[in-house]
Amino acid sequence: MKNIFKITLVALITVLLANCNRSTTGKSRLTGLSFNNPKDGNYIGNSSFDGQESPLGMVSIEGGTFTMGQVQDDVMFDWNTTPKKIHVRSFFMDETEVTNAEYFLYVQYMKDVFPPSQEEYKHIYNAVLPDTLVWRKSLGNTDILSENYFRHPAYANYPVVGVTWTQANQYCKWRTNAVNLKKLIDRGFIKNIFESDSIRNFFDTDRFLSDSDGLFEGDSTIYKRGVKTRVARSKGDPKPDRNAFQGRKITQADGILQQKFRLPTEAEWEYAAKAIIENREYNNIRGRKKYAWDGKYTRESQKRHRGNQLANFKQGRGDYSGLAGWSSDGSDIPIRIKAYPPNAFGLYDMSGNVAEWVADVYRPIIDNEANDFNYFRGNLFTKKLIDQEGKVVIVGNDVAVEYDTLPNGSVVPKQLPGSIKYVPITKSDAAFRTNFSKSENADIGDGDLNSSRFFEDDSDRFASRPSMYNSPKQPRIKRDSITGRDILNIDAKKRRTLISNQTRVYKGGSWADREYWLDPAQRRYLPEYMATNYIGFRCVTDQLGPMTYKKRKARGTRR
Predict the structure, then answer these.
(1) Tally of CB atoms within 10 A around 354
(2) Residues 233-262 pLDDT 10s
(3) SS3 call for 431
(4) What contacts 485, CB < 8 A, 6 or more positions away?
């Protein structure tokens, strides 16, 4: 009898609590107004968030503090990996490098949406193609790789190479749009536009949030439904058509769309590669890691695979894979993804196979006095361009598509047709701010006015001064008055360095590098418009909310 009474009491309390929760669900806790209800103004509100699912092909990297910089002798005497303790936020990272198959999908998509046969799109397709000629050698028989490595199915699951930093950055933007488009189709918000030959497949996430009526050439019938709102149909009102749009438009506050993909910062990449989580003992780190795996040797110690290399790298002069019958690293060029065990975070090939682009602009010294929270050099703060009517300006519709001619002669669009026009913020936008003062921050504290010996100049006079790093200047295009052809006028002066605001960091050793470069702390650089046969990339995206959703015991207290 007592048990029945207890069970009944618990059931009543549960029902009461549920009713209390239900009565306040979807309401403002401080005003009582209902969210997503036309009777109360249809104000948007959504507080239900149980964490993000890992995006396809990615693993969760829990953030924390670590020592960024070298842990072994600086035999190159670069002095550019000085140890520095910083904090990195949690994020998601691709478990492998982007492969030829995945990048080829991007190339096909861009060709479909922006046909190179049309005059206004003729440069867009060529701008995304990888440089397959990076495999050529003046004294080497390597044309078979130039002709087959990117497109042949034998190399489909190999890391893509011949991709510049600029191309890798554009791929990340496209991936954001492709993932969000597929998500909206799968969840029934819009029609499957891939089944229609008459609808242009271009989709831009920012424009979907700001100007969705202009997407898909203004065809609003593509939108099937929006977010449901709590509104009852009055008696006698006609039933809405089955295919009519219902609900309200999706906003960022609904938490439906995928966060932007991007290249990892140098700090994020090094943190993920070192994976010091496996060296953790309570709140301490046991020793320092030399490679992405635990241990100070590059060979497998387990009996079954003893002697095999733990990464794909150049083992000596003329030794890319070992002896015939005993291929100790499995490949003489990049090897297929997941050929080696992952590190403690579940990431593959963070040491070896191909080096990888990261987002940062290169400077010789990691700033000891700079930000120790999610460090990154290379911020360019922009804003949407708004016209006189208060509407966002669309590239290709309201303004012409602008192109850049890179120092290597490649012509690339600054922004794709159909996307929102972004411009750098102005001085007035940054006025009275304490956290930043200008749009371009690549050379802040190392190359800008205040860090130079001309610090007393004004900005106009300083612009005419020689660059601190004396790097090559951007080429100019001149038109030949006789032939009418464009001629690329390249800077022919002798220069001391390639370091500039267009020079980017790449990390990790590759199939063509010696063991020294396998250390995740090592850093090298290359202009963002150049490509090689040993640099690839992978994407990251930010994790929202708490650092982790794993349940943990309280630390630092006794209970």
Answers:
(1) 29
(2) 666 666 666 667 777 888 888 888 999 999
(3) coil
(4) 479
